[in-house]
What we know:
The protein is mainly alpha-helical. It has helices at residues 2-25, 30-41, 52-72, 76-81, 83-107, 113-124, 128-137, 144-171, 176-215, 218-238, 243-255, 260-284, 288-293, 295-319, 324-333, 340-350, 356-378, 380-390, 392-411, 429-441, 452-457, 471-476, 492-505, 518-523, 535-549, 555-562, and strands at residues 422-425, 445-449, 463-465, 484-487, 510-515, 531-534.
Amino acid sequence: MLEQLLQEFLIIFAVSTAVAVVFRLMKLPNIAGFIISGVIVGPSGFGLISDTASIQQISELGLIFLLFSIGVEFSLKSLMQMKRVLLGGGTLQMMLVIVVSMGILKLLGIQDLRKLFLMGSMLALSSTAIVLKALHQRREVATPHGNLAVGILLFQDLMVVPLMLLVPFFASSESSAWVITSWGGFLLKGCLIITLIVVGSRYVIPAVFRLIAKGGGRELFIIAVALLIIFSAWLAHTMGLSLALGAFIAGILIADSPFSHQATADVVAWRDPLVAMFFVSVGMLLDLNFFLAHPASILGATLALMLGKTVLNSLAGSFIGTMQRASVVAGLMLCQVGEFSFVLADSAAKAGLLATTEYQFLLSVIVLSLLISPLIIHFTPVLAPRLIKTDVVGQMIERLAKERNEQNIQASAHQGALQDHVIIVGFGNNGRNLAAALRLLGIPYRVIESNAATLREFPQEPIYFGDGGTQEILEKVELTTARAVVITINDSVWIHKIVSAVRKMRPEIKLIVRLQYFLDASRCGDIEGVDRVIAEAETAKQIVRKVLGFYGITPTEIESIIG
């Protein structure tokens, strides 16, 4: 048994490596290569893997470790700040996709309301693994579109549980008392999980890991991290939740502790090979014979679904006040069908709610969407600007927000000619801190913001709604008489656009750009001559300053060393 399993691992990693190298040379994402590898080695390909069930079970560990790594980036405080996106955006996205899907499926001949709802729910879910891995690799989790995508994905993952409860109910004639009991149990589990997160993140986890750090070496620390991940996943599974959600909770538990970065670094060595195996196992599910028998209908349905989901996902973001470009980018990233849809489809098929042909058709569409999606995400910077031009509803929502914003500006006291003021592009934490400092010193400023929710939150600020990369908005904030422009947004593509627009109107003006990572500097294109503040670099400098200060080195000497 062990020998056979090792042989199959050898085949999977050999084929995956070869395909991934080819995809890398073609500048295509690795995830698509891993799915193709699964098709090649799977039962409908060359049949190189005989025990696909064991491989798929082991591959679940990849999803577990991936979700833990993402959970580490989200503290309890950051999740509370995302409640508008999590609840508002997630609810809207699922409702829009489910209702529209049910209507289209009904027109295609499916009349059973239970089946319509379940199939619509499966199509509404997006791939947590693909989207979060892409955001993580591109370091875009903290961007506006990253926050929107993550919030919607978390809501979808939470909705998998009640949807799973509905499958046996739809398949049988259980009493209403059974339904009340099941949902009551689900709500009780939710309360227990929230309590666990609050108590564990504040008191238990920091104390335990502090004790381990004092008494043991690195090996003990790694074992403790693995124990936390696996225990959280197992506990969630015993409560009827997904393993991946349990691992995400484990990440949140350790996120606020000083050990979070080391935990992430230790997990990476296990995570990446297991995540690759997870996507290989997804490719194994595709039945090539069924696909080759219905290629046109499957491909047409997949493309129509992905286009429709992009539009509806974008609408959900726009309706909750997220800026148009972030809504469109998040809509593109969430256009596929998720891996949890496999679980729902399998449960529905076993319960007799889906016919064999319907089940195979759904599986083919899901796998094909997962295969196409990494390519779409890869080309998102090229596709998003073109889709924005056709997003009529998003443009209308932004126009309404813009009109209200102009009325507020006209009614406020922030009018009159300005001289030597500062223009702040983006009113997140960095923009607000800068504005507070300028206000304290009596230095005038104007703010450009394209998030409608920010306008409602700060109605008294001199915020002008619009895209900082357009001449119209730059004229409104009086760029011609400004002293400096400070760009604080988390979007490298738009940073380049804004810098180009500002330079075109005022080549000599002082420009400061805030970047999160060194990698972002290369993505911003030509920003030579612009003062760049890179958060990653500033953190490193602060560490050097503090350490050298311990040795009595003067601040002047420290600054010369850092320089």
